[in-house]
Design a protein that fits this description.
single chain; alpha+beta; 8-stranded mixed β-sheet; 4-stranded antiparallel β-sheet; 12 strands; globular; binds 2-oxoglutaric acid; binds fe (ii) ion
């Protein structure tokens, strides 16, 4: 076996700050890109986000979802969770000062990650992606999963892929997050202070599938084909679980800014739609731009999930619908 086969599918990579001054390390960029080519997921640590601040933001999210009356808070129709989409800094500010500051930090880390991607992909312009994300079409989704204390709980978050450019995720360490990698649902390790990074289908298509948009879910004890020990998932269900997903979408005017060569993969991924329409379509066809209450699948992913919905470990498969 070569090193590639031994490589950790979801590595932890430290990314430094100061990238705007051209200090982006080639090795770090290559490692980041490699993980996104292999599994589509990795963990990063950035000096911009301290473990203490991450905990503070998660506490603010939990407090907002459990103790505030806000029209933004929605009970999910299928998964056992409540969530809110904070589409703007204004929404974040209204929810909590800590979430506002967290959004600010995520926007900075987004720039760092996008710059690493351009360098790791050997693009001539290290700012290629950052320039095409300067409209800040970013959204925070704060989520609180209910405790169910039941062995028959299947997915706490249904299988899906994300669909913008990149997602930066903080979780409180309650187990269950899994990715579909090489035919298995494998757990994503938890590292305090680290962010989980993954790719959405638009950026994946843009790179012609080079960077993977990977199916993921939050499993429960009755989720199918899980590689997480069942006892771990039973224990996790005894706890509420809080997470914050930061979704970055590309500029809506993007197509007009690209040369035809750069445009090809993105055009194909968009299938004739505008970026805004694509986001709406993947979010379940909601008339609201950023509403992701319905999780969509690409047709390839739907076929893959259909193949997977044969039961092997009890409970309802909770398959995509
Ligand atoms: O809660 C989590 O850990 C994952 C959430 C997620 O994947 C999403 O909201 O897109
Ligand atoms: Fe997701």
């Amino acid at each position: 076996m070569n090193n590639r086969q031994h490589a950790e599918p979801i590595p932890l990579i430290e990314i430094p700050v100061g990238l705007n001054h051209g200090t982006c390390s080639k090795d770090t960029s290559k490692a980041l890109v490699h993980a996104l080519q292999e599994s589509g997921f990795l963990l990063i640590k950035s000096p911009l986000l301290s473990p203490e601040y991450q905990i503070k933001a998660l506490e603010a999210a939990r407090h907002f979802l459990r103790h505030t009356k806000s029209k933004l808070i929605v009970e999910h129709p299928e998964d056992p969770k409540v969530y809110a989409m904070l589409d703007s800094k204004k929404d974040c500010k209204k929810a909590s000062a800590d979430l506002y500051e967290y959004m600010d930090i995520m926007e900075k880390i987004k720039v760092d990650v996008l710059m690493h991607l351009a360098v790791g992909l050997d693009m001539k312009d290290a700012n290629f992606f950052t320039k095409l994300h300067d409209e800040h079409n970013d959204t925070l989704r704060v989520i609180n999963y209910h405790k169910t204390c039941s062995e028959t709980t299947a997915n706490r978050c249904k299988e899906h892929s994300d669909y913008g450019s990149i997602t930066l995720l903080s979780t409180d360490g309650v187990s269950g997050l899994e990715i579909f990698h090489n035919g298995n649902w494998i757990p994503v390790p938890y590292v305090k202070g680290a962010l989980v990074v993954n790719i959405g289908t638009l950026l994946s298509g843009w790179t012609k599938g080079d960077l993977k948009a990977t199916l993921h879910r939050v499993a429960g004890p009755a989720s199918l084909h899980s590689q997480t020990p069942k006892e771990t998932l039973i224990e996790a269900c005894k706890h509420t679980r809080t997470s914050i997903a930061f979704f970055a979408d590309p500029n809506h005017s993007i197509s007009s800014k690209l040369s035809s060569e750069e445009d090809e993969g993105l055009k194909e991924a968009l299938g004739g739609m505008s970026v805004a329409d694509y986001i709406e379509w993947r979010s379940g066809g909601s008339s609201k731009f950023h509403d992701r209450s319905g999780i969509g699948f690409t047709s390839n992913e739907r076929d893959m999930l259909d193949d997977l919905s044969r039961p092997c470990r009890g409970g309802n498969p909770n398959a995509a619908s």
